[in-house]
Specification:
Length: 205
């Protein structure tokens, strides 16, 4: 987890940084490492904020981010631990699962709804998006399929193509017709599973 720390007091800022580093060491095998960036004021950052209260009560300082968290000075280790648990819970509750891809320059992450279908050719995967964009990633389509077990809407329809069933407009013979009009041929090996899933989704909608 990445933590942004803002405190106008240099000494207090460094003390909190040390405490957070100790908490990070304690949690390395449970909730994971904390990566800490410090700032001299709240105006210098745009992330969720933990307000450390001493002479100024930040509860009454105007508009606050909806997930702002408060802790009183002097900082007590037990209270800090509880605040971090609160932040981790917020993060878990708001987590939207993503799928990791990598191109020749960087890793990038897409949500399930960002992907209409994917096609693989050798070590290249083309990702067709609902807005008409096409992104390209490195990798084999079989390896991507192994990373999609947590997602209910993805199905292979042939050896090279994985579709998001939410974007199927209709099934026509041996073809899945996507909402943008693209016709994707289904193999005999996969057609029954796709048809069953498509019919179930129509009944649920």
């Amino acid at each position: 987890m990445y933590i942004a720390l803002a405190d106008s007091s240099v000494g207090d800022r460094k003390q909190m940084e040390r405490l957070l580093e100790r908490e990070s060491d304690k949690r390395v095998n449970t909730t994971g490492v904390f990566y800490i960036e410090t700032f001299g004021s709240s105006d210098a950052l745009l992330s969720p904020v933990v307000f450390c209260i001493s002479t100024i009560d930040y509860h009454n300082s105007g508009e606050l981010l909806p997930n702002s968290v408060f802790i009183n000075k002097p900082i007590k280790v037990a209270e800090l631990s509880l605040v971090l648990d609160q932040i981790l819970k917020q993060k878990e509750d708001n987590l939207i699962p993503t799928i990791e891809f990598r191109d020749s320059n960087e890793s990038f992450y897409l949500e399930e709804t960002d992907i209409m279908y994917m096609q693989g050719e050798n070590y290249t995967i083309k990702i067709f998006m609902p807005d008409g964009r096409i992104r390209t990633a490195n990798g084999f389509i079989d390896n991507i399929w192994n990373n999609l077990v947590a997602f209910d809407n993805f199905f292979p329809i042939n050896n090279k193509t994985i579709v998001n069933a939410s974007y199927i407009k209709e099934l026509s013979g041996m073809y899945a017709v996507m909402k943008d009009g693209t016709r994707l041929k289904m193999s005999l090996m996969h057609i029954k599973k796709i048809k069953d899933n498509y019919e179930n989704k129509r009944k649920d909608s």
